[in-house]
Amino acid sequence: MYVANGDPYTMSDRRFPDAGSYAQYLNGHQNKEFIVFENRRVGFYAYSFNHTKNPEGGYVHMIYLDDKYRAKGYGRYVLNKTMKHCKREGVKSLVLHSKKGNHINQDIYTKLGFKCLGDVDDTGFLLKWEMTF
Ligand SMILES: CC(C)(COP(=O)(O)OP(=O)(O)OC[C@H]1O[C@@H](n2cnc3c(N)ncnc32)[C@H](O)[C@@H]1OP(=O)(O)O)[C@@H](O)C(=O)NCCC(=O)NCCS
């Protein structure tokens, strides 16, 4: 598996109905990568540093895998890669937002080393990974 630039707008995220709106969204972000596996796009992913939700660290804007590519270790791969990037850049934490009631995601992120910081609003909560190495 590898991570490379690509064009994710055909993935089923309804927030981005076309390439232009997704490109506009990503342009505001410092790091932007799309998940690619065996020449097939399996999902998309974006994170950046110095976001208001984690000014001292990194923030995952989105991580999304197409249904049939879930629970195969890709999420762990991409987040581990990000954590290593954080380490290289001297960034000591990574925060992401998860939708309320999504207990599956909460379990997954806990397994990946994130701890829940509590609700941020009616829609969801923040989870944080802190470097321990
Ligand atoms: C959340 C998501 C990115 C996780 O990536 P993934 O590739 O499916 O997860 P992985 O296969 O790397 O699994 C990571 C860990 O979670 C566990 N896990 C995976 N799916 C699980 C599930 N449905 N229930 C419980 N645990 C699960 C794995 O066993 C693994 O733990 P382990 O290594 O100790 O066995 C992916 O499932 C996804 O895109 N979901 C839909 C979109 C979404 O909700 N995005 C998040 C918005 S915040």
Walk me through the structure.
- The chain is α+β, with helices and mostly antiparallel strands and 133 residues long.
- The chain has a single domain, classed as Gcn5-related N-acetyltransferase (GNAT) (Aminopeptidase).
- It has 3 helices and 7 strands, in the order E-H-E-E-E-H-E-H-E-E.
- The protein has a 7-stranded mixed β-sheet, with helices on one face.
- The longest helix is centred in the middle third of the chain and has 16 residues.
- 23% of the residues are buried.
- The protein binds coenzyme A.
The proportion of residues in beta strands is: 35-45%
Largest sheet features: 7 strands, mixed
Rg from C-alpha positions?
14 Å
**What is the CATH level 1 assignment?**
Alpha Beta
Based on the coordinates given, report the CATH architecture: 3-Layer(aba) Sandwich
Bound molecules: coenzyme A
General form: globular
What is the share of helical residues?
Answer: 25-40%
Low-confidence stretches: 1-14
Q: Briefly note the structural class of the backbone.
A: alpha+beta
- Lateral arrangement of strands in the main beta sheet: 1-2-3-4-5-7-6
Determine the number of helices (DSSP H or I, runs of at least 4 residues).
3
CATH topology: Aminopeptidase
On the 0 to 100 scale, the average pLDDT is: 77
Overall structural domain count: 1
Task: List how many beta strands DSSP finds.
Answer: 7
Q: Give the CATH H-level superfamily.
A: Gcn5-related N-acetyltransferase (GNAT)
What distance lies between the first and last C-alpha atoms, to the nearest angstrom? Answer: 25 Å
